[in-house]
Write the structure tokens for this entry.
Amino acid sequence: MKCIICDNENDSNSVEHIVSESFGNKDYVMQKGEICDGCNNKFSKFENKALTNTVFVMERSRFGIETKKGNTAKGKVKGLEIEGDENFKPNYLNVKGLDSENFKDFDPKTKSGHLYVSSFDKSESATSKLLLKTGIESIYKSQRKIYNKYNFRDLKDYLKGDSNTDWPFIVTDFETKKFNSIPTFTDKYNLKRKHCNLSILEVGNDTVFFKFKYGAIPMVINLINRNTNWILNYYQQDNSIDINPEHIKNKIINKDNNKGSR
């Protein structure tokens, strides 16, 4: 069987989880050989960083998710060490490194306050790869007609490491048009039970939006190319969106400011 990423014939015995097991997914998987061992090993390197050095670790801990090795979810984001409850109890977690910058509005009567967690800790590139990997695999699995309709060569080259130019994405629940679920029936139901939604919006030959939402964290990326015009369109309609990486965010804001000053 050919690997859908590198096109190499292989007899891999590994099971590729489309949504990482560390998000709680056990069932939504590729057939053996559809992702070769070489690509699988590359994926594991950026997956680990995206799972442990981003706001995803907060959600995984909050949901009491058990890792594929049977451990509690844990990671570190901008000095905050976050770990789920040792008994995997939802909504209970341990946080170390609290200070006045990340824990505010403490009420001594209720012993409660507001915790602020940064989205990423030098992990934007790993996160974009996680989104692209999950997007292409889910479309191949559940929407084969859409997979066959488009050229995903840039995406595949990026995942293989043949191209290292940053691939932008945004964090937002705002939608310019309605997205449609990629998984169907049982797959959709099982992922929803794990707080995960995968959806798609086809806009044109060079724009296919993939939305990955885990708990309260929604991320959107264009699976076809790195073009940023779509991000500017989003930003002009909702300037509260979080654009990543930071240098691309600065370019988008400057571009919008220049447009407005004309």
The radius of gyration is 19 Å. The first helix runs from residue 37 to 52.
